Amino acid sequence: MDLLPGPAPLASKLRNTLVRYHSIGDGEWRGAKKTKDATVWRKPSEEFSGYLYKAQGVVEDVTNRIVDHIRPGPYRLDWDSLMTSMDIMETFEENCCVMRYTTAGQLWNIIAPREFVDFSYTTSYEDGLLTCGISLDYGEVRPNVVRGFNHPCGWFCVPLKDAPGHSLLTGYIQTELRGMLPQSAVDTAMSSTLANFYSDLKKALKT
Fold first, then answer.
1. Cβ neighbours of residue 159 under 8 Å, at least 6 residues apart?
2. Structure pTM?
3. How many domains does the chain have?
């Protein structure tokens, strides 16, 4: 089993990477999907041969409650239809943890279930919060499960100044699903998954 990296340097590097993604100009993104709940864009990833996705939408709730539903914890498994199990493997101070989770099959099981082990970190950002993560090569890979890898990912959630009780939620996701998959299937799944994430989250916040 690999040793866990020190949480503080990893958290700092991860935050800086996400802030850099957040400053990428609009002209570098290409539209991927648009629904009533969210807009999804993409651009070639700097980390691997797939895409970095950006998703954005307005969510009717306060920042802290939204982020509590997204970050590792009891809420996430209740509402996120893609996540089928989640275990916190290690907990550090400063809102850091390592979690192992599995995802459901997608696209009529063309994409089989996946397992991920992610370092997760939640911190303040401007008037709101940033919850971010990156996969680690840590822990034994379970048999009959493909281990995927999340390159730096995260969600910025900031209150809307002109709409009290509403927040702007912006996500950056770049997931390497691994295994033998056609890239077109991965791209279709990613855009739809991100759009559905917003509609599922909104439903959960209203209950």
1. 62, 63, 127, 128, 166, 167, 168
2. 0.93
3. 1
